[in-house]
Structure formats: C-alpha cells, structure tokens
Amino acid sequence: MINAVGEKFLRAVHFDFHTSPVIKNMLDGFDADAFALRLKDANVQYINFPARCNMGYSYYDTKVGVKYPTLKSNLLPDIITACHKQGIGVSAYINVSLNHELFADHEDFLTVNKDGSRIGQDKKDNFFRVACYNADYKYHLFKEIDEILQMDIDGIFLDCPVFRPCYCERCKADMLKKGYDITSDKDFYDYHALTRLNFLSELRDKIKDKNIKYYFNDVGLPVEFKTHAETECLTTDASLWGYGYYGPHSALASTIYNHRVFMSGRFQGSWGDFGGIKNLASLEYDLYDALMSGAALSIGDHLHPVYGLENEVYRRVKTVFDEHLLYEPFIKNSDPVAEVGVLMSGNSGAAKPFTYGADLMFKELKVPYKIYLADGDFSNLKLLIVCEDIFDNDVLDKKLKDFVKNGNKIIFIGKGIDYGARLNLINYVNVVGDDLSDNAYFTHKGDMRWASYLQSKLIKNVSGVSIADYVSNICNFDYDGRQSYFYRPQGDITEYSACVIGKDTACISFDIFTAYKDMVLKAHRDLFEDVLSYLYQDRFVTVSGLPVTSELAVTASDKQTV
Q1: How far, in Å, CA of 526 to CA of 365, rounded?
Q2: Cα dist. 552→197, 288, 338, 381 in Å?
Q3: Are 257 and 251 in contact (CB under 8 A)?
Q4: pLDDT tens, position by position, 481-528
Q5: Are residues 77 and 151 in contact, defined by beta-carbon separation less than 8 angstroms?
Q6: Residue 287: CB partners within 8 Å, gap ≥ 6?
Q7: DSSP 8-state symbol, 92
Q8: What is the tens place of the pLDDT at every residue in 53-85?
Q9: CB atoms inside a 10 Å sphere around CB 172
C-alpha cells in the first residue's frame, strides 16, 4: 500500500478555477488573508488552487506562461502565504494537455486527428485542442513545472493527461522508426499509449524528489503516478458521474493507498456551474460516503473571478465540515474493513462494469467489501470473487490456489469460470464453452425463468450442488430478411446449470454483477445471496430489518472499530 506523503488532510476544497478572457477586473481588491480566514472558519485544511488553468492563463507572476491579462496581484503565492499562516496546505493545479492561450499561437503543439484536422468541431468544448506529447510543447510544460516547484507548495495536481492518438507527421515518422505500422489503428493506439506514459513519467520524475503530494488526474494511470487517491466524482445526475461512481473506485483505492480523497463538488450540474449549489442533504450524503470509506472529503468549487468566495457556498461548506469534525475522533486514521473481496485485473484505479454492479449488490446485502488488483493482499479475507479470465500471472495463480488451500472460498463468475477451470478449482463442473445466445435465462427457487440479460458460459454439473438451472432462449436478436426477432421468449430448461456450488468454490454462469448494474433485477441479487449463504455463513456483520437502501460500513484504526 502506498503511504501518504506529508500530513493526511481530511477536509479540502478543490478550486477548479478556469477563466474565460472576458474579465476586466480580475479579483481587484482580493485579500488573500481574508480568503484564508474564511476557509479556516469553514474548517478547510487543504486546497488545490490553479497555477495555470486549462484556458492557458497563469495566476502568478510567470516568466514562462501568460499571466491573466487583468490580474494585478501575484495571486497563487499570496494565497500560499496566507493559507500557510492559517495552517492550510496548498497544492498547485496545472492542466497537462490543455493550454488554449498557448495553443492558439502554436498549432504545431497540437494533436492531429485522423482526418488531418488539429482542432475539433465543437470549439466550445474544453478539449477541442489537445497537446501532442511528441511536440515541443513538453519543454514549455516542463519549464512551467520547474517554475511552479519553486513556490512553497505542499503538492501539485496535474489534471487532464489526455490520451488521444496523434496522426501528425512527427508521430508517424517516429512510429516508422520504432517499427510500428502506420496503417494500423491498433499500432497507433499502442504507440501513443506508450508515448503518453513516457511523457508523463518524465513529468513525474521532475516532481517526485520534492517530497510533496502529487496526483495525475486519470484513474487509468498506474499507481506510481499518485502519492494518494483523489476520486473525482460529482454525484448529481447532471454530471458525468452520478452516485454510483464513487463506491467501486473507493473500494479499489482502499486496497492501494492509505490516503484517499473523495473529490465531490458543490455544483448542481458539472464543473463550470457558477450559479448552482447542491442541496445540503446531497453534500452530507457525500460526507457520509467519505466517512464510511475512510476518506477525506474535498468539495469542488469555482472561485468567482470578480467577487471571490460565494457566501452561500461557504455557509454550506462550513455546515458539512462542522459535521465532519464531530465524527473525526471515530474515523481519523481509519481504513474500511472488508469481509469479501472482488478481484480485478489491471494496474490502475479504473473500475470496470462488473465492479459497479458488485458495489450496488454488496451495499444492498450489507456486506462490507473491497476490490483488489492481482498484486493486492487479500490473504486476510474469507471470500473472493473472480469475474475475469486472467492469463499469464503465475504469482496470482499460486495465491488463489493457496487461498483455497487455507480454507477460504472463491466464487467464479462468467468469464472467471475459465480461469477457475485452468486452476483446477472447479472440478465439480464440466465447462463446455460459451453459449452463443445473446440472452439466456435461469431458474432459481421456483419455476420463473429469469433473464440473465447477458451471454453466458455453458457449465454442466458433475458433483456439485446445482441451485439454478440454465434455460435457453428461443432465438437471438436478428433479422431474417423479412422480420426482426426483437421478441425473444424463454426456451426450455437445459442440461446445463446457471449456478453450481462446490466445497470451496462456486460458479455463476453469467456476469451477474454487470447484469445487476444494467437491470437491477432482484432475482440476480437473490441468487447471489443464496450462493453467499452456502459458502460464507460465518459473517462478522449481520443485519436485519433495515431497508435495502440503507448502507453499512466497518472502519478500523489501531484504537477502535466502528
């Protein structure tokens, strides 16, 4: 697990401060000391504040970039000094791939799209210009970083390290030199994935020896690009994320980082919503999510470029952080405790479709859980769930075999069944192969033939306990030249099973978590709960009488369990 750099903050504000070039009196009369005092009164411990925004304007006296034209003060250094007087830490924000003021004069710095254009069609979108990582832009960015690192900052937040294949002549020449095929979309993808990683590695190497926090804001990047986790998630439906996003990302981050931050926002919509504020109850919901996952809470805001902090916003921030303070004695330095783990392939914090369904199902079943990467330590669990077929990982193969040998249980789901078969952990079934049906059905405790909604593995029970029969469909969704086969009723019960339980493991033939994410069919949850009752009866938390929408968490520190 990655240990925190510096002190772990619990209450933060992220200033997503990007300013269009129309402000004639940028923060005239701004008082940095009054700003810091207002933050302190709202119990803010830490802030992210821009050194340079995605519009391309710097908010300090820069020799490298372009200072906002009507900004008179040396804003960021003044804020750092004032916040430090009040014991508030400051990370400097910079956008990695967007710098529109610079790019307007340097089209040679831009990614070239496949159609030969450098600029996207929607010029009101933030990402209509994006940097090419092979361009000389990187030297400009590195100089900006060097300049920012001279300030007395506590961290640096590197936003939008965008991945976008570039078709410029410079990139194509380098691809040919390195043996890539410039007629292959896959080679373009692979080449630019590596190019971006090398570019960001150079950038990280300039920062990592400074002993400050750093965070590259892309959940798909490997863990070495982050000293802590900041899960960006605006939870309103108008945003890109929604309430279902934080859970699985938090469950994964809790097995990788010991300092985790839930970056929510005060916005009714998305970033850039100046006139919207979430209801206090919505902000409190985010607070409880953070507390239950042992994470800090960071509330996203925009500093108004003329009037500064909005009074109503900071009345609500103060109310939420006042409540946070009430609970801190019980959650400080705590981590969530899990009794079940979900295994996920990859090397990053990017959740996958099945993890969203798992998060929802476990919350409804009141089962504390975490998500583990292949190199994670799940040895203290009693039950692990595998939803993927994972290849060429001898270390993980041995860990799973030892896990079962030590008396623990595994549930193999969907494609994970192939992995279980290769490990010889599901010898009680015969894995026939993949069903070509685009939707199968199953029975469980009754004669209703429930939809799986997804393709399935064909498994035949040999010596286990089959608790769900596999039911075929009549036809696939198709067109025969005259009619479409839109309506696909259930067929007959087959010789196959939808769920079989062995002594130490179980198999569910379809990806029940992804199906639950998509359809929220209670029969799926009932089937999974039945499997749990067979394999895992000695749960350390049992709950009865609570509504399905209630949530449960267990956190523990060296002093207490809550």
Answers
A1: 10
A2: 38, 11, 11, 18
A3: no
A4: 999 999 989 999 999 999 999 999 999 999 999 999 999 999 999 999
A5: yes
A6: 297, 320, 323, 324
A7: E
A8: 999 999 999 999 999 999 999 999 999 999 999
A9: 16
